[in-house]
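new request in #modeling-help
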Amino acid sequence: MTVMDYRDFVRPKFVGLLQALGLECEFERALGSQLFYRNPKGDMVTVTDFLGGYGAALFGHNDPQFVDQLCALLRSDVPFNAQMSIRGAAGQLGRALSDAFNRELKNTERYISTFSNSGAEAVEIAVKHAEFRRQKSLQKQFDDIDFTLASLTASEHAYRELDVADLDLPAGVLPATLNSVTLRQVVEAVRQHNLAQLHIEPVFVALRGSFHGKLVNTVQLTYGRQYRAPFARFGLNVEFIDPQQPHQLQELPARHTHHWLSLQWDGEHLHVLQLPFSAITAVLMEPIQGEGGINEFAAEFYLGLRKLCNEQQCPLVVDEVQSGFGRAGTFLASSQFNLQGDYYCLSKALGGGLMKIAATVIRSSHYEGEFSYIHSSTFAEDDPSCHIALSALRRLFADDDAMLKDIRTKGAYLKASLNELKMAYPDVIADVRGRGLLVGLELHDLSVSSSLVQASAQYNDALGYLIAGYLLQFEALRVAPSGSNSNVIRLEPPACITLGEIDKLIAALQRVCDMLRRGDALPLAAGICADSMPALPARQDDFRVTEPVENRDAKVEVVARVAFINHLIDADILGDVDPSLAALSPEQKRTFINRTKPERRAVPVGPVIIRSRLGMAVEFTLYPLCMDSDAMAEYIRSGDLDSIREEVGRRVTDARADGCSIAGLGMYTSIVTNNCQALKIADMALTSGNALTIGMGLEAIEQGCVQQGLALCEQTAAVVGAAGNVASTYASVLSATVDHLILIGSGRDGSVRRLEKTAQQIYADAARSILKGTAEHDRLAQRLLTLDGFRGLLHSHGQKADLGLHIARLVDERLGANAFITVTNDLDAIKGARIVLCAANAPQPFLGAEHFAERSVICDIAVPLNVHQDLPSQREDVLYMHGGIVQTPFDDGLAPNVRAYLKKGQLYACMAESVLMGLSGMSQHGSYGDISREQVQQVRALAATHGFTLAQFKTQNSL
Ligand code: F0G
């Protein structure tokens, strides 16, 4: 299993990402513009390559001439390892490159090449050389000045007393306390100042959007924060300027100009001279940014860079690693902008697509000879690579530049075709740009797509990758987005690409544009689930939502932004959330959810306005995790809570970054975080919503009893899943009213022991309400008071942690086991109760018609539900309710596609609690960790104040 080996021994997480994008593919062969892989059926699939090895495969894969030449070279025993000798092939290549530069730049200066093995190395060499040269030049300036200063020290005036006020010295050079000094003292202070200047940290200038590699130094020259930021503490001091803000160029020099000080004695006075120098060591740029999104800039900007370098006396480093060597239709892309650099970096196509070789090409007038002593690399200058590069260079210019002309023609055809597509899809395609066979197609931002999968792809900057996955799986085309802007599809095919292949690409891109326009995410999902989706139906369905957002009322006063961190209740809901995926089978939906595991964050949904009866309102936004209950439960089963907690935490911080001050967790997101407690996130009030969930469940039961003609106080109540905090608090509150309680556990290891703890907790709650004097209406408390020895126990153990245990023992002794509370794992025990509360954490329903007593009142507050939904149709005698659902006062609620099992104007109680916290201005956590009976009563009161009522009761069964 090579996939597993690659994952387990080479790139652990990356393989998951490839799977999530539909790019999991192992190519077996490559030739010309084509790559070949075997599909799961074992058939060989031919893919047309529009990525071209990020530009390196300009000459096509395994070009037969180069392959023959390389074989012949190796067979003729050319030395590969002959370091520290005269490298003839390197010499030939160096001369050929210099000639090529002369032709391209129409000059006669000699160019000196330093060879290396990769693009980043070529840039590192440029950086090293620039600093080497700068240091040398600064040292010389320092020495010259120092010579002058030393002669002053040696002069007869050395001990002349000078008035400090007469000296024009910058502040800080001399101690502020001195009024008069000797000339010698001044000289010493000035030398110290100059010495400090010699050690000023060099500054490198690069452009916003740049990519110069990922080594320790080059990564700091690469704009993408994700690559650079983790390593900011070492490496270069880089300042990025924005080519769209050319004034930044003007402002740059002042910030980095420093001064040497020198002194001149005219026989009477001492004059202070300030001699400026720049700390800018080099300016680096790509003529056409590749990885940054195929960006080129205004000609004046390029000239501005040249001017800056002339003025600062620092080299302009032109990184042509990607754009050069013919890729843009000329030997150097920069020559199309009339740009003259001092250093050039070449790699990628230089090796003919076969060899790993790079060159840093420096004008001889800017080259420091000694650099060739101090820089070297084991593999650099090897004969085979240099011979192939030499042939590649010759090929580029052969037949009167035929290959370059061909690149220009094909590039123009590709661009014109893309522009036509843009005319047809101006709503989808934002821009087409580039030169030669270095072309970018930029898509509009899809954050507001009605397809949540498309919008989420945009949110996660993965849109281009998903499109690449679809194109690979269903159109046999290979493209990639640019790394720093996934909305730009990068097209860098080999020069041997045919016009027919370009047409094929355009036709496929037209289908992509069409599906993006229609809000159809099926092709994207299909790319990920390709092995379970043999064919993709051609369809024209329009999934765009045209209805206006409902309750946007400009007049309400929004008092808080509230987030809710949810997940998909089940995989099937995916088809509601994104209707374009409704056609996926349940299995495919699950596959989609499982494979997208590396990026769980879906685009935030909302906000919607939720109003209080009192007039104020909150903005309520969902921050979904794209996983179903099974996937969430799996984290609990596997014990891998850290990773899911991290995911939930990231969503909370996403919400905080968007200005939310309250986040509600619900369903499994609260379970896995131990009811919020596992999250350590500053400045966010969290709630599991458990208090209101319980409050609303109680209300449902009370109303249900009235409807069924049952007196609650005469009933036995069963609580299913009673070991959990929600259910145990529920049971505790019920114990104050009902006649008997049955606590039913999961049957998992230790569940009876956990239930016994719940029972003890209930006894302790009852006892504490006696101690607090609030036991008047607490039925269990009243009955405990009649027990012989109870008051004594209360007296002796009232403040102790094991009070409940002692009461349980006393009850057992006096009345036998199960007097007030029965503990069991047996689901059949439910039949002994007329009131049933279902609150078990289970990914699937497990209770049905056979489990319930006649005319019972069943309240299912579990999410996902515990009871099979066909119960009402099978058992007309029972009253089945979803207790955890709240009606908002003005029918405000979630958009239809994200309501899950809710109806218009409804919220789950766990959501509603976070809304109530927002409405009442709370900045403390709500239901956090275990909750108490008191919290339940408080939040019930809060709900009543704001006009939030029990919802679902009226919508189920009769009434
Ligand atoms: N400079 C430029 C302009 C590049 O595009 C790249 C690589 C490098 C330097 C570094 O070369 O990978 O050989 O060390 N660009 C690739 C890309 C990786 O995604 O465009 P390397």
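bot summary: The pocket of F0G is lined by residues 54, 118-120, 123, 211-213, 286, 290-291, 319, 321-322, 347, 483 (CB under 6 Å).
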